[in-house]
Amino acid sequence: MGDLIAAKKGVTGMNNLVKEGKNTYIVQAPPPSSPDIVPSIYWIELAEGFLVEWLWTYLPDGNRVVTDYKLIPPPRERS
Questions:
Q1: Residue 41: φ, ψ to 5°
Q2: Alpha-carbon distance 61 to 54, whole Å?
Q3: Could you tell me if 4 and 72 are in contact, meaning their C-beta atoms sit under 8 angstroms apart?
Q4: Closest of 46, 42, 3, 10 to residue 25, by C-alpha
Q5: What is the pLDDT of residue 36?
């Protein structure tokens, strides 16, 4: 399973919130497990209330790198 990051002011997971815009947030992707690996994703922009689940690829040498993500929308309000 990936790491979940909440896109809400003050909730940044692993200190990944790098910029705040009007109702959006830029969230930095976790770095690869080795500095020799070039990341495939550097950051994404989320609307307020959304979550991101980082999806990792495990390499044959045991290292890992984020290669995809899944956006999780906020829960719908019941009327």
A1: -135, 130
A2: 20
A3: yes
A4: 46
A5: 95
